[in-house]
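Data availability excerpt. The first of two example chains:
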Amino acid sequence: MPRAPVHIVGCGGHAKVIAMMVEAGDQLDIVSFIDRDPGEGASFLGRSVQDEDTFLEARCGEAVIIALGEGVRRRETVTRYKQAGFSSFPAIVASSAAVAEGVLIGEGSVVMPGVIVNPGAEIDAFCVLNTGAILEHDCRLGDYAALAPGATVGGDCRIGAGAYIGIGAAVSHGRTIGQSAVIGGGSFLASDAGSDELWGGVPAVLIRKRAPGATVL
């Protein structure tokens, strides 16, 4: 069966990993990369880099993967593409990820190498589960939420839209994390975290409120 063409939006490290995942599979074929200001004749990983404005005008209807690791930028980019009429955003799951049967994965989400997703979990749209992250049973990961490399979320947790769980952080079972909250790298969260809150430490404590719409990186 021929592979379906796809374009990757982004030319950073996150895009490199996603390209590796796509090339290891047998369903998609990378046509080009997309960047906002690539410069004439630009290339990335041996493929051409198209100017985003030109691409949006000319290629509506083709499949794209949004390869941007930061949640606010990812949301803004998806909004821009949908307004331009794009509607095909395939989810990408690494062959080495262990995803339980029946797990729901929303459009545009990325499950990277070594990730474990256990039964009953739900992953909404445009999420990122980075290398080696664990999403335990019966969890819900909201739109644009992200687990950094090595993050662990215990069972029955609810992670709000745009929330970010940092590198190596752990969330105890049954917790609720509000939208756009950030749990700092290496932290252990044993309580609920509200929307737009930054938590850190072992055990994690509330450090401050974040400005609505603030980026993580």
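And the second chain:
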Amino acid sequence: MNLYYLAAAAADTEAPVNEFGFWKAMEEGGPVAWSILAVMIIMSVGSFYILFTKYFEQAKVMRQYKSVQTSFWRAASLKEGATKLEKNSAWRQLADDAVTAQDHHSKMEGAGNEIHFVEEELAHSQNTINQALSGGLSFLASVGATAPFIGLLGTVIGIYRALINIGIEGSASIDKVAGPVGEALIMTAIGLLVAVPAVLAFNWLQSRNRRIDALMTDFSNNIVSYIGSNGTIKPTAAAAAPAKKPAPAAPAKK
């Protein structure tokens, strides 16, 4: 009997179990914490959406450049070469703008040197393409710059609420402080998890855009050289991939 009463007394004197975790932290944070979490989710989803869409867009532009190397410069004229490029592509736009610039220059009086006129038109066209390729990257930069501070705001609010609750309970023991403060730091961690991929994606996509811009500059310079030399100066077209030879037939058995 004595053992029974001792066990019951020990159970009554046990410290209450504190519940910790992400959802508990969100419940303690209230509407502010849920609002900040919703903003973080929107930022993260938007960042990955831009990452994948811009990657496929850039990959398409780089893939289309192969047709410039293999077919465009094999044509007898710029107009014929432009028809061999894929419609609604950056390279087709540059080629069409060069042809249009030639036509406009021939109809304008006092337009100056034809080469300079074409160069200006190609530079304007290239800037337009670069702006289209850079669309959405400002969102990634904004997410990378602001997400940690939004998470820090959630942490500050969480710590404030935790300290208020600790003051109301009148206990500042380590078990009362460590849990709520640790939960509040979750928001800072979420902010970093959102910001780091956005910054990495921004830098990577920017480097690919610079590569595309260099290719377009080279293509524009080749067009200008072609026009200035009346078609005598142009890069050597890359040879098309040879067709695979069919495997030789097996000799008939006698």
